[in-house]
């Protein structure tokens, strides 16, 4: 199986498409119409937005916002190859431009083919300042068949083209494509890239090429590119590539994204993961992140915590990248993150290679495209057929992988019966069984399964696996500091622990304890935040909640959290659990109203931006350590341990602390969320406004110049 290609393959394919395209003849404008060229520039987060700049008379300039309208914005966007404008922005939203202000008091009807046809004061006639530069946001949809035609003579303009993606697994070979045509056609210009462009259309045009049919490129050949797969698409160790693809501790990761190649940006510093503030966050920095993680360039640079809010420190602020950096940790940044909250967490959406994952999986019979019976394209008797997946052991984690593979976001529910979704009768047979996923797989085929040795006693059909997907999901995170600061020991008499004993909140030795004996309880408070994009709700409906007579309350989730005391080798020495008898909004961030309250059999849940606090003094908010001998242990809390409710990120559902017990007192320290990163031989430090691996020197990078120099500085 040849290794998949990265975005470079797409770009090379684009060059091939250019070579196969006929040059587009210029559309004639009325005589006397000024010849101009447009581009979108400035501090922008997306390639289809920015400050409007006009190239006229050999010089780039801007457009004043006086009298500008959505009609003028539509003309600008269509001239750049987009279908229409979404909005326009006055007052230099994308930063102040430089040079001349070419147009002022622009009046367009919206039918003009170029901005030069709109009425205005005339080129260069303006009383505006650059604080009034106008910007536009165009639709992402491109005009079908749009091709860029240069109207300039100095060859410094940017390319704007229609991007066409094709799926190739290994090499992009123009020779193979061109061999199907008798006449070879070439793009009429060379392309000059510096290497830090977010996409090929950001490169500048080179010299003009004299088009002479097959003789155009007598001294050379059409471009051929060999692509190397990124980290996410690299061959696994099982395929014999363990030496070539040595797994290293990543310094940057994405969390909370619905699909492959998107998420909140998190950075590792001093052994702790933290977020990036969105001040000055742009496509250049986002592209560095995407390339570092093995994707292509950035599609979007997202701000304002749009893909969920993180926890812990904000490691980087005002990040400035030149685009040449191999890692975001090499970019310059402001070490002072004061004033940055997690509401400003930066995120990215990357361009992802077209791997064809969606072609081997489908949902059938659902009421909408986001739900249905899972059907897989598999080989059977020498041919490819559609079939179902056995629902034995089918759960939320497996459903999460299905939704991700189809690009439908997060799993909302996993179904083990799908009789209410009548799928294709010819696809009723089971073709996949024993599916077990870890949740990190990109396709269902990458999960563990029985292969050709199918084992599904109930069969497919009405018992086939199904899913429902959602574009948003909750994300529960425990506040580790609250646990660390509220821990204490209490000796409590057995006669007042009868209800807790009925709910199995005590260790097994309590069954033989007398009512006059005491139990030693490790008590603590837990504060659980919902940092996702939708509310956390119990899976069970209101009418199916379980009533507990002793405590006289309902359990909306029979097991909401697990509490464990572990030895250093992972063996449980004591354990506890907590049912969600009251899942409500204890407190919310400023401006957010509480929606869930347990009183009077009310609705239970946790609103986005709110948290639920289980105080240390309520029943079952403990671990029974009566039988534990003194020593050093690991204290662990796991939220939503059975994955009953789908979340955007399960890795932050686990909190661990170091714990020391001397038989009389207990100390809780070094609490952290998720897996603590192990860095061998390296220390992630901050050096001259960069994050760097010291061994034993800091890497200093000068930004905003093409020839970046590296210097060794004594640490």
Automatic annotation (TrEMBL):
It is found in: Chromosome; Endoplasmic reticulum; Nucleus; Secreted, Extracellular space, Extracellular matrix, Basement membrane. Disulfide bonds join 64-128, 77-138, 108-118, 321-331, 437-447. GO terms for molecular function: copper ion binding; protein-lysine 6-oxidase activity. Residues 38-139, 252-351, 361-470 form the SRCR domain. Residues 1-23 form the signal peptide. The keyword tRNA-binding does not apply. Its EC number is 1.4.3.13. Its main location: nucleus. Its cofactor is Cu cation. Transmembrane segments: none annotated. It comes from the Eukaryota. It is an enzyme of class 1 (oxidoreductase). One of its GO terms (cellular component) is membrane. InterPro entries: LOX-like_protein, Lysyl_oxidase, Lysyl_oxidase_CS, SRCR, SRCR-like_dom_sf. It holds the Pfam family SRCR. One of its GO terms (biological process) is chromatin organization. The lysine tyrosylquinone cross-link (LTQ) is generated by condensation of the epsilon-amino group of a lysine with a topaquinone produced by oxidation of tyrosine. Belongs to the lysyl oxidase family. Mediates the post-translational oxidative deamination of lysine residues on target proteins leading to the formation of deaminated lysine (allysine). This is Lysyl oxidase homolog. It comes from Oncorhynchus mykiss.
